[in-house]
Predict the structure.
Amino acid sequence: MRALFLIIVAGLFLAACGKSYGTYTGPKVTRIVVEKADRKMYLMHGLIVLREYDVGLGFAPIGDKVHEGDGRTPEGVYEIDRRNPQSQFYLSLGISYPNEKDIAEAKALGVDPGGDIFIHGRPKKYQSELIDWTLGCIAVTNREMREIYAMVETGTKIVIRE
């Protein structure tokens, strides 16, 4: 009986030691603004910049995303619609691309708008360099992604500008 008790206590202890992505107790992030031309991302509370990050974009960053595989990061107003703690690129926050406008534009051109656009960390080979390498996502360092993951809630608006 004592052995069973110790196994249960050990299991609860190990479960409590799960991966933590930090906590944030400051002002709420009310929106995210990405300035593609400047390679900057801002976490905002109203008009106040809470954090600023240098970002990497899609491998063909100029212009709005039109179709899957074009290497462009979309431009427009979206929201953070999902969280992935087991991302291929450390942690990730999903962006609600494509929206109705994106779908209509792609349909008019007879192409697939694509999807799966995220803010995420970087693999080892890109940790020390700020280059545009993603398929259309927004990349930051893993340390920065941990901070962003803790600060940004699902439903937060994200504005991506040229």
Notes: Helices lie at 2-16, 100-109, 142-151. DSSP finds three helices and eight strands in the chain.
